[in-house]
Automatic annotation (TrEMBL):
This is Branched-chain-amino-acid aminotransferase. It comes from Devosia limi DSM 17137. Acts on leucine, isoleucine and valine. Its cofactor is pyridoxal 5'-phosphate. One of its GO terms (biological process) is L-valine biosynthetic process.
Length: 296
């Protein structure tokens, strides 16, 4: 259904406890979440019929709501069950899935404590379009002019809609200039992350990735750190200055949507995706497949 507008697709969306036909999953224009970004969401993928790290995504969703001072009115068990129901109802096996929670439309001004909290869950096919060989060509990134703000200026650990304002600005500017994505520095000038993914750098068997102290510590990021260690790499999390990027041979992004995406260029720096990226792409592809329960 590529190219079909998101509000015009066929299927079922879980909306406040019931499955609604896709086109009927609507909210009012005077919704608090729309005007004041009182909205949190998840991006998760199902592989072979199972959502990878579903409980971690659900817990992050609930925690993101708490960070924005609201309680999603469903338990983690209920949200997990709803995600599975959405997959089944839409006959999806490999899919991208978007749970989203927001404050409703009872009142429309900055304070929000009297507004109800809503939850919807949608899923659709969003395959990894590229073979490993294609991926290994790498994508080109532009430096963003926007910086990840200090942790005492935004709730940076939440996956909250408001934090994506500068991501959209950065990615649109990069794409207009012929790049695939943008890489953001943080408020101190350290390397931070791409607009929807974390970043890693490889030199030989050593991997370095920025410390996630003002941006999302991605679930894929943590998975990759474990897989890299299991595959004989050392992994160091530390602050990285942009001028040291020339010391590295390979670079890749990680994220639920991006999975493991090699990078060939960041601004003035070039990288050659090779064995390191290949090993980690393969390790991640194997990791996300549902684990067979050993026969009794
Ligand atoms: C800004 C940002 N950083 C990092 C990530 C990677 O997070 P995860 O691996 O949990 O998908 C994402 C994707 O959710 C993101 O939007």
């Amino acid at each position: 259904m590529a190219g079909v507008p998101m509000d015009q697709r066929e299927g079922w969306i879980w909306f406040d406890g019931e499955l609604k036909p896709w086109k009927d999953a609507k909210i009012h224009v005077l919704t608090h979440g729309l005007h004041y970004a009182s909205c949190v969401f998840e991006g998760q993928r199902a592989y072979g019929g199972e959502v990878f790290k579903l409980r971690e995504h659900t817990e992050r969703l609930i925690a993101s709501g708490k960070t924005l001072d609201f309680t999603i009115p469903y338990s983690a068990d209920e949200i997990d069950a709803a995600c599975r129901e959405v997959l089944a109802k839409n006959n999806l096996v490999d899919a991208y899935m978007r749970p989203v929670a927001w404050r409703g439309s009872e009142e429309l001004s900055v304070p929000a404590r009297n507004n109800t909290v809503h939850l919807a869950i949608a899923a659709w096919v969003w395959p990894s379009y590229f073979s490993t060989e294609e991926k290994l060509k790498g994508i080109r990134l532009e430096w963003s002019k926007w910086r990840r703000p200090a942790p005492d200026t935004i709730p940076c650990k939440a996956k909250a809609a408001g934090l994506y304002m500068i991501c959209t600005l950065s990615k649109d500017a990069a794409m207009a200039n012929g790049y695939a994505d943008a890489l953001m520095l943080d408020y101190r000038g350290y390397v931070a992350e791409a607009t929807g993914a974390n970043v890693f750098f490889i030199k030989g068997k050593d991997i370095v990735t920025p410390t996630p102290d003002c941006f999302l510590d991605g679930i894929t990021r943590r998975t990759l750190i474990a897989l890299a260690k299991a595959n004989g790499f050392t992994v160091t999390e530390r602050h990285m200055k942009p001028e040291e990027l020339g010391d590295f041979d390979e670079c890749f992004l990680t994220g639920t949507a991006a999975e493991v995406t090699p990078v060939s260029q960041i601004g003035e720096f070039s990288f050659t995706p090779a064995e390191g990226c290949r090993t980690l792409i393969d390790a991640y592809s194997a990791e996300v497949q549902p684990k067979q329960v050993a026969a009794e």
